[in-house]
Structures are given as C-alpha cells and as structure tokens.
Amino acid sequence: MKLILLTISLIVFTISNCTDNKYSDIERKKIIQGILIGSSGSPAISCTSATSFSSIGTAGVTGSCGSCHGGGSPAGGVDVSSYSSVSSRVSSGNPAGSVLYQKITSGSMASYSNTTINNAIYCWIKAGAPQ
Ligand code: HEC
Fold first, then answer.
1. I want to staple 95 with a disulfide (CB 3.0 to 4.6 A). Which of 63, 64, 101, 117 is the partner?
2. Which of 35, 90, 82 is nearest to 57 (CA)?
3. Under a CB-based contact definition with an 8 Å cutoff, are residues 85 and 78 in contact?
4. pLDDT tens digits, residue range 77-125?
5. What does the alpha-carbon distance between residue 125 and residue 94 come to, in Å, rounded to a whole number?
6. In angstroms, rounded to a whole number, what is the distance separating the alpha carbons of residues 29 and 37?
C-alpha cells in the first residue's frame, strides 16, 4: 500500500512539474490527478437512510445469501434470517473488523455479493448493527 501511494505521489509530482501551462494542459493535469488520487483511497460510502437488520435483507442478502445461509443446517453456521446469527459475525461499529464484511468484500463470499449489499451491510455495521 505504501509503495502504491509513493508511486502515485511520484506520478502526481512529475505531472505537476511540467513546464507547459496552457489552459488545456492544466485541465488535463487536474483530471489525471483526480483519477489517480480518487482511486488511491477506499471508496467513500455515505450512509444516509435509517438502517436496521431488515434493511440488509431487503438490500439483497435474503435473495443472494439465503439459499445457502438458511434452513436447518446453514452454511458456515450463518443463518441470514436470524439477527443473533448474523450479528455474531459482526464487530459493532467496525465494518473492516467484521467477519461478515470481510467475507463479502475480499473473502470467499465476495462472488455472491454486490455493491448494494456491501454498502447496506457496511452502513448497518457502522450504525452499530441495530436489530
Ligand atoms: C452457494 C452457497 C453460498 C452462498 C450463496 C453464500 N454463502 Fe456464505 N458461506 C458458504 C459456505 C459453504 C461457507 C463456509 C466456508 C467459507 O467460510 O468459505 C460460508 C461462509 C460464510 C461466512 C463465514 C461464517 C463463519 O463465521 O465462518 C459468512 C459471514 C458468509 N458466508 C456470508 C455470506 C453472505 C453475506 C452471502 C451473500 C452475499 C453468502 N455468504 C452467500 C456458502 C454460501
């Protein structure tokens, strides 16, 4: 990560130090810098609407995860229809430190998830994983 940031800083530094200052060149530099800087951090997820356990279900968890994570012997011991089951895989207020969020963003469950589900789960955990 540090190496990536260092490389990006070097590129931005190099671009900023070009001597040609025509208006179109300045605009182009700004755009390139925006792309580089914008893609270097983690995406900002804005959590605005009220969130609850049922909101992650309707965001897509029930449809995308319920077939495996439900019934008599749910996969991985996680039943997505059960608040206590799902919240036991969550560190309240800390999405990055939650098994649930890790699994759907970079873990073995990522292929079953999507941005809508990820954002809903992120916001739910951030809000303290309310019932
Ligand atoms: C095709 C079946 C299937 C689907 C669909 C599926 N999972 Fe899983 N899930 C599994 C299996 C099998 C495991 C246990 C192996 C593993 O951890 O990879 C698991 C493990 C997990 C775990 C870790 C449980 C633990 O405590 O170790 C979480 C959290 C999880 N899934 C969440 C989800 C979410 C959220 C979705 C929907 C976006 C989802 N899964 C979709 C089969 C599935």
1. 101
2. 82
3. yes
4. 999 999 999 999 999 999 999 999 999 999 999 999 999 999 999 999 9
5. 6
6. 12
